[in-house]
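User: Structure tokens for both sequences below?

Assistant:
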Amino acid sequence: MALFSLPWVTPVQSQTLNKAFVLGTDEQRYEQLTSNHAQSLLEATAGDITKAFESWLDMQEAIDAYAAAQNFDLNGVKIWLHVFWAPDGRIDQIGFLLRPDSRLVDEQEIRALLAGFSEQYRLPVQSSQPFSHYTGATFPTLSQRRG
């Protein structure tokens, strides 16, 4: 069943849901995004690896908080994420793929969660051009920051 035919998805929600996609399902779209967002998160932070890491970690924690606010249980979810940002830190698109060792979650539900998150989140990094980052994420987000 196509996502856009689901009765609970309104046209506005369909546009929002289009912000998130499963990696490997639309290679032409992915290649275009990769080309348009050629700068890395590390380059967008002027090579400051600490700022890049902490910005990514902040985003993962924000995903955790957003999921909790939506009553979506992310515990045990392991996922590959490729995030494409506008120069001002807004998320243009977010590609994802559940890892084989992830807790099972409905792909359409995680897509809707990530699409909704991408509509309201802004990374605290700005650049002169679009940028992206590809990595794995495990939820809940657990890390120890330098302090």
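Moving on to the next sequence.
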Amino acid sequence: MRPLGGEESIDMSEPKSRPSPLSGLKILEMGQLLAGPFASTLLAWFGAEVIKIEPPGKGDALRAWRGLHKGTSLWWATMGRNKKSITLNLREPRGQEIARSLAANADAVLENFKPGTLEKWGLDHDALKADNPGLIMVRVSGWGQTGPRSAEPGYASVAEGVGGLRYVTGYPDRPPVRSNLSLGDTIAGLHAALGLLTALYHREHGGDGRGQVVDVAIYEAVFNMMESALPEFDVLGELRERQGSKLSGIVPSNTYECRDGKFIIIGGNGDSIFKRLMRAAGRDDLASDPRLEQNDGRVQHEEEIDRALRDWTSSHTFSEVLVSLEKAQVPAGPIYNMEDIVEDEHFKAREMFETTRLADGTEVKLPNMIPKLTDSPGATRWVGPELGAHNDEVYQDLLGIGSDELEQLRRDGVI
């Protein structure tokens, strides 16, 4: 890859020979859409070989979600990148037999079916570890594999509510809102990737070489992000409430409108930062006020501080406010949409975009993934493949299935 104006431009004609920290890690992905597949996308970015099982016919439902280009979702270009797509009907006995053979050659199976589904198909961990004792199985579901709600449908939208996130999102005088993203799925996917790597390390270094089950519930992944809300309720009886653009118990940390109608986010909650902020706003009296020297005092006088900052920002343009705060070394910045992001010089300098081509040659920008590793960075080797693009490679090379048998499997609807 070569940098192009702070952006990576990718020649997709050949796989890239870059050091891959997860090279040799073999993952079999079952399931579809978001939480589980996001985890394997992240691992594939760093070199893991991910074989994705998709149902014959339409494949992963994500292929048809949101913005489409010639019938295929642009989201799929990102979520499916670096994965090998094979078609396999897991509801058919022959398909289940093939899945067991694939699992016997894998380090891990990553699935996000409704709990009990793999057991019904004879593909649960107890069944698969008979042929592969070292197999790790990562199971992502709405409610987890146990408990009274485990068998219920579990979408991330509901899990965000049950996990506590929705209750604290929005303004106090309005109903809770959601971010226009699938945060619960992504958060669960991050936990799933961490769980897989943790189990792998244990297998290789701390255990007896045997695999284990990693149980990720989406609502629990969301709950894991709730900071100190639980002990505050338990000890102090305090409920974290919706605060709009503010942050409970940390002052000042808010969004303010400027004279030109633009909004600026200001994080002035550090003790020394607060003093610099108020001086930049022309309020030396508040900067030197002993009541406001520490955060607990500022919390008690939050309205007075916010009113002073609103008065200041509303009488200046966004650029004027930002220049003053940058000079005072106060954390501040705008609220970007995607158009703003792709023009931002810092995003470009950090190479957060890459330009590649879809199957028909259309250029497309994709987000580079993080974290950034200095010696063994991740890379896009190919974008989301056509459905079943790797059938012959996987079934013939990995499992040794002959061409005649493959053709019969196609006729039978197994692949």
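User: Anything stand out in the second?

Assistant: Residues 1-16 have pLDDT under 50 and may be disordered.
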